[in-house]
Design brief:
Layout: H1 2-11, H2 16-38, H3 46-72, H4 75-82, H5 85-95, H6 103-120, H7 129-148, H8 158-180, H9 189-215, H10 218-225, H11 227-240, H12 246-269
Length: about 270
């Protein structure tokens, strides 16, 4: 829902910089307040604390790319492009030596990529290269996080890791705004409502996402994530009036089916 709310906020006069700053500040304040109120310690072992700084880089790529993309292109297209991240995960895992690239994995990736191309190849109006670039940057950020972050989440409080990661992103983005200039506030009630909902949904979704990761096997979690583009595109259709052609839905279905097959196959084989 975040991209839809972000688009509503932009239509109300907001800018991507405000929503990016809002999500980092909102998360840091809400979760930091929770730690203070409950007496829970956010301290981490040195290895994990240092890792949270590194993890902030791909997470920043995801946040900035995700929110900025829908300023320039349709939410439906942005979601489809962002959902190329499972393909990037496969490539990064193979290149880094964490997984062996088999013929079966290559076949699944090609089918998923074919579905992605089919989904993109509709009538989206004038494609703004900035929106496409931001969406692919977000996808690369998600892929980097999923590829390298899991080992640093084991045996520690993931909420504390999330808190520190968002604090680093907040500090880095605030420094950028001091150099590049401030943010533009929304000029309408719609802009403020979209901003508030995007911030709240980010905080809740971020917490629940990592909580779910600790309670679900990776394959099941991957399958559950495949509902995201369906929900996002449906929300954009009903709340923003965007249209998605039947051929594009077919492409989305092919891509998601291939990714689900890959996840379930990995669960059976223990890969």
């Amino acid at each position: 829902m975040i991209t839809t709310f972000a688009h509503l906020s932009y239509d109300g006069g907001a800018v991507p910089q405000l929503l990016v700053l809002g999500r980092f500040a909102g998360f840091s304040i809400i979760v930091g307040g929770f730690f203070l109120a409950t007496g829970r310690s956010p301290r981490l072992p040195a290895r994990n604390f240092k890792a949270s700084i590194v993890m902030a880089v791909p997470m920043m790529m995801m946040s900035v790319g995700y929110l900025a993309s829908v300023k320039f292109i349709a939410v439906s297209l942005a979601v489809i492009l962002i959902y190329s991240f499972p393909l990037m995960v496969g490539l990064l895992a193979a290149l880094s030596g964490r997984e062996r690239m088999t013929l079966g994995k290559v076949a699944v990736m090609l089918v998923a990529f074919g579905g992605l191309v089919l989904a993109i190849g509709g009538n989206w109006g004038a494609l703004d290269w900035r929106g496409v670039a931001f969406a692919l940057t977000a996808a690369l950020g998600i892929a980097g996080t999923l590829t390298w972050a899991p080992p640093f989440l084991e045996g520690v409080d993931t909420l504390a890791v999330n808190l520190w990661t968002n604090v680093w992103m907040l500090l880095a983005f605030a420094a950028y705004l001091l150099i590049a200039g401030g943010v533009v506030l929304p000029t309408s009630t719609q802009g403020w409502i979209g901003f508030g909902l995007a911030t709240v949904f980010y905080t809740g979704g971020y917490i629940l996402f990592f909580a779910g990761m600790k309670r679900l096997p990776p394959a099941e979690a991957a399958v559950m994530l495949n509902f995201e583009p369906i929900v996002s595109i449906t929300a954009a259709t009903f709340l923003l009036g965007e249209t998605t052609a039947a051929l594009q839905w077919l492409g989305v279905s092919i891509m998601l089916a291939a990714l689900c097959f890959s996840a379930l196959r990995g669960a059976r084989s223990g890969a």
